[in-house]
Every structure is written in structure tokens, then in C-alpha cells.
Fold this sequence. Notes:
Layout: H1 4-33, H2 37-40, H3 42-61, H4 67-87, H5 91-118, H6 125-154, H7 156-177, H8 189-194, H9 199-219, H10 222-230, H11 237-261, H12 263-284, H13 288-304, H14 306-316, H15 321-348, H16 355-402
Helix pairs in contact: 1-3, 1-5, 1-6, 1-7, 3-5, 3-15, 4-5, 4-7, 5-6, 5-15, 6-7, 6-11, 6-14, 9-12, 9-13, 9-14, 9-15, 9-16, 11-12, 11-13, 11-14, 12-13, 12-14, 12-16, 14-15, 15-16
Amino acid sequence: MPLALLALAIGAFGIGTTEFVIMGVLPQVAGDFGVSIPTAGWLVSGYALGVVIGAPLLTVLGTNISRKKMLMYLMGLFIVGNALTALAPTFGIMLIGRVIASLAHGAFFGIGSVVAADLVAPHKKASAISLMFMGLTVANIVGVPGGTYIGQALGWRTTFAVVAALGVIGLLGVAKLVPAMGRPETESIRTEFAVFRNVQVWLAMAMTVLGYGGVFAAITYITPMMTEVAGYKEAAVTWLLVLFGIGMFLGNAISGRLADRALMPMLFTSLGALALTLLLFTVTAHNKILAAITLTLIGALGFATVPPLQKWVLDQASAAPTLASAANIGAFNLGNALAAWLGGIVIAAGLGYTSPNWVGALLSGTALLLSFLAAHLNRRTRASARLVAASGSTAHTPADAMH
């Protein structure tokens, strides 16, 4: 695989760390600024909202810029956002810093997916995309626990200063290793938006919102679920999240290779198994060992959906893939926010800390049904195309016979 994929993975590692490490230092931030934990939670939801908005906005603004330069600009924005977060004198300024950093998130992964796919042969595109996303999964194994430890030992400002430094390394890596690939091959912004006339692009984004959202319905409330239901001490949640990250890493790596061979079967399998595992979690959450195993499986199956979904979007929006790819990254974060909200509703309704798992299973199961629909429509489109091609060749047969 090209070394350029390493540069993209480093950028993804930094972005993944800054997205999730805030959860580990949230009490410290709240205490320093004298705000409540729910108020400090805006640093999480504000980031997610920034991703949803920034993904299509910055991708559109970068239509006339080469993809390499755009990736460098995005890493620069990421560095500025995290530096501002580290130096913020007030909570409001820190929130602004978080949003600035988040604006780069969706566009980086969206454009990076297109660049990664273009660096390799057609039969290796999903594997290349998974290698870039490997940086995000490693962030959950190393970056988030490490950043949390640094924050507890040296203060949360040091954590975000280190993340900004990671951004500098990512920027230098993109500058040195990613080849100049020219401007996106689209005529105008209108051409980019035209891909949204394709129902398959919307189906893919809906699958992303619901499928990966199913994971976040459970993982958002993992601390009370593991402490109140499974019986773990709060300090154990850190290594449980490491297990979840290891699952993400393995699911991403395996899925990338399998999706290159059989994309839709891989998607069917991962979504179906994810829905069943989330249902199972309502039972296994009552046992420490089984809860840990199930949590690892949820990480693996949840992230196993990422390479095939991202590849499916690129295939369906092949005429102008950049905006659709970035919008699909925004869909992941929209799914996170939707699932966290729905999970909170069922807990508030008194259904218990395992009830978000039912919500997650329903969301992932719905995504599975949508994947069947997408596959059916794709088969019908291909059959129609073959029929048109066959009728076209038949129409020439009589004339050919006269000669």
C-alpha cells in the first residue's frame, strides 16, 4: 500500500483522538470553567454538529482546489482549532475552538476517502479506505486513553496541545507523502450536488445514520451500563473502552478486505450481526466477562460497516464523489447524535440502562432492511441496462444480415 495512506492515517488518528478524548477530561474542563457536566457536554455535541455542517460546506468550498492542498488546509484548520481549545481563557472560547477543529473532520475523511481510493487499483479501494480509517480506530485504543491519562496527570490543556502537535505531524505527512492529484474531476459545484439526485446515495447515508447510530445508542451510556448493571468500578471503564477500540480496529481491517471481494454481502453480514449483538447486550450486560466480550464485538461489527458504506457511496456517486463522501462522514455524526438522544429518552422513561441497546438494535436492523432495498434497486438498474444494451444490439441485427 502507498505511504500516502500512512499520512492520511496519522491525520485520522489526530482527528479521532480529539473527537473522543473530551469525554475522558470532561469533568476537569467543567471544574476549571465552573460549569455543570451537562453544560460541558456541549463540547461533545458542538463538535458533532460542526462535523455535520463542515463536511459538505468545506468540501463545496474546496471544489476548485486540488485534493492534496485541501487536505493540508483542513489539517491547518484542525491545528488552529485544537490550539485554541488548549489556550481558551473561557468556556465559550473553548467551544469555538472545538467547533473550528470539527469543521475539518468530515471534509478530511470525505476527501481522504476519495484520495485513498484513487491511490490503489479498483479491486483494493475498500482496503485503502479502511487503512485510512485505521488511524481513527487506533485513536480509540491508544490516543483516547493516552490523552485521558495526560489530562489527568498534566491537565486537559496539555492533552489538546499534544493533539495539535499530532495535527502538525499529519500536515507534514500529507505535504510530503500525498501525491499532487489535481483538482476534483467535476465541472462545477452544481455537478457535485447533482449526485444527490441518485436515490442510492441517500440510501447509503440513511444506512450510515442508522447502522453506526446503533453503536452509539449503546456506547454513549456505556459508563452507567457497565457500573450500574455489569458491576464494574468506574476506573474499569477506561480499559473497557480500549476493548471497544480494539474491536473497532479489527472490524475495520477485516471488513476492508472482505468488502473488496463482496461489498453488499459484507454489509448485510455486519449490519445483521450488529443488530443481533446489540439485542444480546441487554442480557450479557449483567455479567462482567460477557459484557466485555459483547462490547468488543459491538466495536468490531459497528466499524465493519464503515469501509463498505463509504465504498458504496463512492461507487454510486462516481461522477462527483467528493461531496457525497464527505456528506456520508457527516451522516456518521448525525447518527451518533440521533442515537444518543433516543437512548437518553428510553433511560429517562425508566426503562433502565440497558434499554439503549434495544434502540441500537432497532436502528441497525432498519439499516439492514435499507441495505436489502439498495441491493434490489442496484440489481434492477443493472438488469435494465443489460436489457437496453441487448435491445440496441438486436436492433442492428436485421441491417447487418442484409449485408
